[in-house]
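[Automated response] Your request has been received and processed.

Submitted sequence:
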Amino acid sequence: MSEPLVLPGTRVRLRTTTADDKTALVSIRSTPAVHRWWRGVDLSAEFDDDLADHDVVRLTIEDPDGAIVGLVQFTEEEDPDYRHAGIDIYIDPSHHRRGFASDAIRTLVDYLVEVRGHHRLIIDPSVDNHAAIGCYAGVGFEPVGVMRAYERRGDGTWGDGLLMELVAEDRIGSG
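Generated structure:
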């Protein structure tokens, strides 16, 4: 996907992430509330590596004033027998509970279903991330099951993840 994307939401605007977003996004990702879930050691170098990875589409989330408030990204499984997309997101803690995350996800879901033709979307928060799980459920994602010992935590132990999915015909506001 080489064309820059701009996806207007109700409360946010999603646009292709660029190198100019680095300072703001690294700063957000460095906050304890985000870093807990989006770990990393050298976040600046990881940003550069991520920007060069064309298997993941990264979109910067802007508030109504154009300020950067987070990032949402997606991957696509292209095998026609298993076609689906996966989503990840983080929002600046100073913008939590304002509807930015749910609007960003809803906007991306609409794009992935209506434009990219996906019938199924997945997201996989930590089972401990209750705020994220509630946000995703509010957009229409439903729990599928717990993936045991799914991701390494900051202390080196393994944590469980919750696989959630949204099937296009079941999305909130469809039809």
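Summary generated for your ticket: The CA atoms of residues 125 and 132 lie 7 Å apart. The longest strand covers residues 142-152.
If you did not submit this request, please reply to this message.
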